[in-house]
């Protein structure tokens, strides 16, 4: 028999798969519950609505992503090298977790995710990116663009790069493509 936490995880895993394969609107809570092997009432016990399930899934995966990236953070004193390490680690996470990254591809910019949830993910969960950008601005290495705009722009670049590498995984193994993807990201922020 599944424990309460197993049931919750089964619901989240199933929702992730169905949201990616069928889309948010085409996926019913009944189909999630059925495929997860739980009663619909159990789903609603954990998540009062499909929107809350989506938000929980989004924040959970963003936190998992951030934890993985933070575990690889280095403070070498060379901002560009540290940024490159973060960028590479982030794309490597996407390559290692294609279903979760596919979920971000579909929902990061979607009105399905409430803007306050996206802001929470960007500011609290991915706050280390903002801190890195602020440090770069303070050091005079990065342009003094508004921080939230820089973060959103960088996020868009990350989604574009991961889309490219998920579609062309062999290119992620190519050092020239890795370097080019980082320079596209970096050069968008450097002081001109």
UniProtKB/TrEMBL annotation:
The keyword Transcription regulation applies. The keyword Transit peptide does not apply. Residues 5-65 form the HTH tetR-type domain. Pfam families: TetR_N. SUPFAM superfamilies: Homeodomain-like. One of its GO terms (molecular function) is DNA binding. Keywords: DNA-binding, Transcription, Transcription regulation. It comes from the Bacteria. InterPro entries: DNA-bd_HTH_TetR-type_CS, Homeodomain-like_sf, HTH-type_TetR-like_transc_reg, HTH_TetR. Residues 28-47 bind DNA. PANTHER family: HTH-TYPE TRANSCRIPTIONAL REGULATOR RUTR (PTHR30055), REGULATORY PROTEIN (PTHR30055:SF222). This is Transcriptional regulator, TetR family.
């Amino acid at each position: 028999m599944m424990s309460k936490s197993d049931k919750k995880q089964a619901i989240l895993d199933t929702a992730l798969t169905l949201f990616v394969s069928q889309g948010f609107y085409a996926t019913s809570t009944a189909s999630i519950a059925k495929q997860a092997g739980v009663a619909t009432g159990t789903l609603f016990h954990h998540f009062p609505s499909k929107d809350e399930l989506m938000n929980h899934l989004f924040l959970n995966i963003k936190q998992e992503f951030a934890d993985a990236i933070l575990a690889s953070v280095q403070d070498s004193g060379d901002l560009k090298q540290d940024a490159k390490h973060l960028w590479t680690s982030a794309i490597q996470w996407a390559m290692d977790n294609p279903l979760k990254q596919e979920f971000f591809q579909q929902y990061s910019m979607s009105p399905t995710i409430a803007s306050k949830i996206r802001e929470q993910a960007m500011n609290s969960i991915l706050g280390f990116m903002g801190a890195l950008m602020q440090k770069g601005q303070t050091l005079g290495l990065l342009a003094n663009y508004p921080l939230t705009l820089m973060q959103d722009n960088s996020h868009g670049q990350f989604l574009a790069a991961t889309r490219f590498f998920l579609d062309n995984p062999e290119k992620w193994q190519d050092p020239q493509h890795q370097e080019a993807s980082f320079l596209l990201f970096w050069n968008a922020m450097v002081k001109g």
